[in-house]
Amino acid sequence: MARPKRSGVQKYHDRVAHRYDESYDDAFWQWHDALTWDYLKPHLPRDQSAKIYDIGCGTGKWGAKLIKSGYSVSFLDISPQMLDQARVKVAEMGATDRAEFIQADICDLSDLPQGDASLAVAFGEPICCATSPPKAIKQIRRLLKDEGLLVATIDNKLGAIDFYLQRGKTSEMSDFLRTGRTHWLTSSASEQFPLTTFTPTEFRALVEKSGFVLTDIVGKTVLPMRHHRQLLAESADRRAWAKIERSMSHDPSAIGRAPHMQVVCRAV
Fold first, then answer.
1. Residue 120 lies in a domain
2. Mean model confidence pLDDT for the chain
3. What is the Rg, in whole angstroms, of the alpha carbon atoms belonging to the chain?
4. How confident is the model at residue 13 (pLDDT cuts 50, 70, 90)?
5. Helix locations, the chain, DSSP H
6. Reported pTM
7. Which of 19, 26, 77, 161 has the highest CB neighbour count under 10 A?
């Protein structure tokens, strides 16, 4: 039987899996990840036996953190190389008995049990990388119990406007604003894959058509600290800037500044 053709998103993530964590290992990402976890913690199940999926798990950073917090986790990714990295991370923790690893495209999760999960996290924008975000969201909804939660990060269409303005082509800007579609910027054409971005209003409308209610949304990050990493060198400074960030991140008028949004969707 012929092996299925790898998509661009799988090719790219297979290639970078062994060095992926190195790309996100500096003061900015430590600051950014601390915010991600702070925004997630209030939504963790009280019952530590609850079923949890880490969707688009990559190297398993968030699933491993959930395991450290006492949960068992199903790690799911389209890239087998990413899953291998996650396996190593979990094995080093001595927690293989509390993890399972699933290779799947989030647009087709039909082989997985229906309605038995209390929480799905989808960080790193896997929904936006999907060939069909509406289909991906419906597939995730299928996994969740009623009242179960999806906590995900989403590419903010408003945060990408400067990129198209710098390119200076009105037709490209118009097409992007109309469709929200762009692609991952990688040098190999075979590894390029589509990305779909959303405004907060557009994403709310999408999830509410897919069996969810959007209950929380934050901008991440409203402060453009990615371009001011030197301000995060000291832990005291990171805490101070995080306090300012959190004071603005829930403000709907400030979310447009952020390249991403972290959302909480409740299954209904």
1. yes
2. 94
3. 18
4. confident
5. 8-16, 27-40, 61-68, 80-92, 126-129, 133-143, 161-167, 170-179, 200-208, 235-249, 252-255
6. 0.93
7. 77
